[in-house]
Design a protein that fits this description.
The protein is α+β, with helices and mostly antiparallel strands. The chain is built from three helices and five strands.
Amino acid sequence: MAENKTVANPVSDTVFLEGLQVETVIGAYDWERTIRQTLWLDLTLAFDCRPAGTSDDLAKALDYDALSKHIRAWAAEQSFELIETFAEQLCTLIYEFAGIRDIQVRINKRGAVADCAGVGIHIRRTF
């Protein structure tokens, strides 16, 4: 008799923050090291929404307001030459703050290139 194995569906839920604006010192040029610039962040965070969805309990949801405030405060204290370094450290920050193990970050540094709506990077990290 064949054994009946039930395979649970993997969680594919995500929580996203789109267009989160943070101020930081970012840039490789000397003049950039003396000013704060705005970065626009799009975050996609793997998060199992079922516990919150089935219980209607805020404590079981990802507190994206607290996370966004934490990210903004962190960014304000930082200084980077490269957005790549900012992105790497941001992923670590999110993992340490919220325990998110699969993180996608898109960073847009508008105005970095003339006649261009934005430039940046998109990375995905898993912990």
